Design the sequence.
């Protein structure tokens, strides 16, 4: 192979590398500004926040008045709209009942999915299965499997639960 052929092949390889880099850069720029990527990020954020807040709303440490008060504050932080208003309205009553019972509940979301997302309106619907381990003040506790349907709303602090409904286990909806 002559020097001229090697030089021509070198330039061809360099040109091919530059074209591949240019196409990669163009593809990245297209994907970065893509609406589907923004929608996917919003979906992932709603699902993560919904799971985290549902865990909070199905958990309570009833060992002391201070821990109950802290748990109720966590419930308020996880909620918005009508659910938040209702929790705020019943807070004093809930505090007394939960402190008196002394029971502890630990919710763990085992599976969750968004069934709807309106990114423009800032609303989403979530279904989830939660295992709730309940430990009474005295006696033996156990774990209950629960299903929930939640309505989420986007707030300045991320997605929060606006409405929460328990679904019967084994229901078709």
Sequence:
């Amino acid at each position: 192979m002559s020097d001229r052929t090697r030089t021509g092949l070198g330039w061809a390889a360099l040109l091919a590398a530059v074209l591949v880099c240019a196409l990669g850069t163009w593809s990245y720029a297209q994907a970065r500004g893509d609406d589907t990527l923004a929608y996917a990020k919003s979906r992932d954020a709603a699902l993560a926040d919904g799971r985290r807040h549902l865990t909070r709303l199905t958990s309570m440490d009833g060992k002391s008045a201070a821990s109950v008060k802290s748990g109720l504050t966590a419930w308020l932080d996880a909620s918005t709209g009508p659910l938040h208003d209702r929790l705020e309205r019943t807070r004093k009553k809930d505090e007394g009942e939960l402190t008196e019972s002394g029971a502890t509940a630990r919710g763990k979301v085992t599976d969750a999915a968004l069934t709807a997302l309106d990114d423009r309106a800032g609303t989403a619907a979530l279904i989830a299965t939660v295992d709730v381990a309940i430990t009474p003040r005295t006696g033996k506790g156990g774990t209950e499997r629960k299903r929930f349907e939640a309505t989420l709303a986007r707030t300045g602090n991320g997605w929060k639960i606006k409405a929460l409904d328990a679904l019967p286990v084994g229901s078709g909806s």
User: Anything to note?
Assistant: The two ends are 73 Å apart (CA to CA). The longest strand covers residues 104-118. Strands lie at 60-61, 104-118, 123-135, 142-155, 158-167.
